[in-house]
Amino acid sequence: MGVLQESLETLISQTPRLVLSSILVEKLTEKGIRLRPGELERFANHIIHGSEGAFTVKRGGPQDHRAVEIAISESDIPNIQAKLDRVTKALIDSLGPIVANTASRALSKLRTTWRTASKKADRHAREFEKRLCRRWGAALGDLNLLLALTQEFGAGIIQNRFPRNRRAPPQADALVRLHTRACRIAAECIRLLYGGFADGAMARWRTLFEISTVAYVIAKFGNEIAERYLEHVAIEEWRALKQLEKYGRKLREEAVGVAARQAIERRYSSAIARFGSSFRNQYGWAAKHLEKKDPTFADLVDTAGISHWKPYYKIASHSVHANPKGLRAQHGILSDADILLAGPSNAGLAEPGHCTAISLTQISSVLLELDNSVDNLVMLQAMVLLERAVGKAFGSAHQKLLKDA
């Protein structure tokens, strides 16, 4: 226990004694009796411990001893309560400044010591990554190569099919933007894997899977659903506006200007009028084509034809949400032991690594719909072969880790 906490608990434990001593002084004064500090303390102990009989003040010889009796009745309770309240208030009032001043001094000292400690932490992180790469380096290297090919694949299609001076159709616009975002998220997954954060990488893959799912649905139904998807931003902006209006003052956020708010309201109303009332729902952009008034993400997955990935999506969700399963189901822990993992681990990289590779090839296969030239077919096939190699490399590293553990 810290020094401040010990001091606080000591003060709290002494509060009843302090109040009782104050009451005793008042009652003894009424009787014309003055006790020395030590005598007063013994008298208070006599009462607190429930000792029977009168309290005897011993001074000089036995003939000078004096019995002292003090009665505390119900009529004294208001006075006792008032004193307790004053002492408690004084304690609370003094605690705030003490904590603030102590915290400020402690932070200043921590910043000074952190200059040295941070260098040590950085060195340990570099050494950890080197050890991790000795085990997982081949798999991570192939995954990096796959990401580079995916980025090149997307850039090539954009340059060949959609020059800057020509506006792309809704389907192409949506798929290209989804593919670009997928590349960025895959890069985040890889960076997390290098850092030893397998659960973090799995959480980011969850978003990568969602992007692939949406891309599959848009590729299946074409320009009309793509336009609905892109226009659904009006619904998202309106929802964000309503939340800001509700909580903005408490968050000390500046209110949206009148003109901006009116523009958001107009776009929202226009979208609802154009696409129907179901468009206001979370996945309302897909309502017409899925023939559901309020489709769910699970409906999108089913429509995309990748329902068999739902178990992995569920596993990834444990790393996103604050459910109790996520407290124990962690990729960074090999055994079922009750381990509290508060930092990186060199375990568990296989699943998020291979899932990332598969999602990259999935969304690239969707982008092929925009330009299925022979060159792109060859490149996509190379990516598929590389994805399989990534899976094998991650699997081999994982099996070796299990043997070494």
Keywords:
405 residues; single chain; 1% strand; mainly alpha; 2 strands; elongated
Please, could you describe this protein's structure?
This protein has 405 residues and is an all-alpha fold. Helix content is 73%, strand content 1%. The protein has helices at 3-30, 37-48, 77-161, 170-194, 198-221, 223-231, 233-251, 258-275, 287-290, 297-304, 310-318, 325-328, 350-367, 374-404; strands spanning 55-57, 66-68. Strands 1-2 form a two-stranded antiparallel sheet. A hairpin with an 8-residue loop joins strand 1 (55-57) and strand 2 (66-68). The protein is elongated and about 115 Å long. The model has no long low-confidence stretch (mean pLDDT 89).
Poorly predicted spans: none
Distance between the termini: 36 Å
**Helical residues, percent:** over 70%
Number of helices: 14
How would a crystallographer describe the biggest sheet?
A: 2 strands, antiparallel
What would you call the shape?
elongated
Give the strand tally: 2
| Computed CA radius of gyration, to the nearest angstrom | 35 Å
Structural class: mainly alpha
Short description:
With 405 residues, the chain is mainly alpha-helical. It has helices spanning 3-30, 37-48, 77-161, 170-194, 198-221, 223-231, 233-251, 258-275, 287-290, 297-304, 310-318, 325-328, 350-367, 374-404; strands at 55-57, 66-68.
Question: Helices and strands in order, then pairings?
Answer:
Blueprint: H1 3-30, H2 37-48, E1 55-57, E2 66-68, H3 77-161, H4 170-194, H5 198-221, H6 223-231, H7 233-251, H8 258-275, H9 287-290, H10 297-304, H11 310-318, H12 325-328, H13 350-367, H14 374-404
Antiparallel strand pairs: 1-2
Helix pairs in contact: 1-2, 1-3, 3-4, 3-13, 3-14, 4-5, 4-6, 4-13, 5-6, 5-10, 5-11, 5-13, 7-8, 13-14
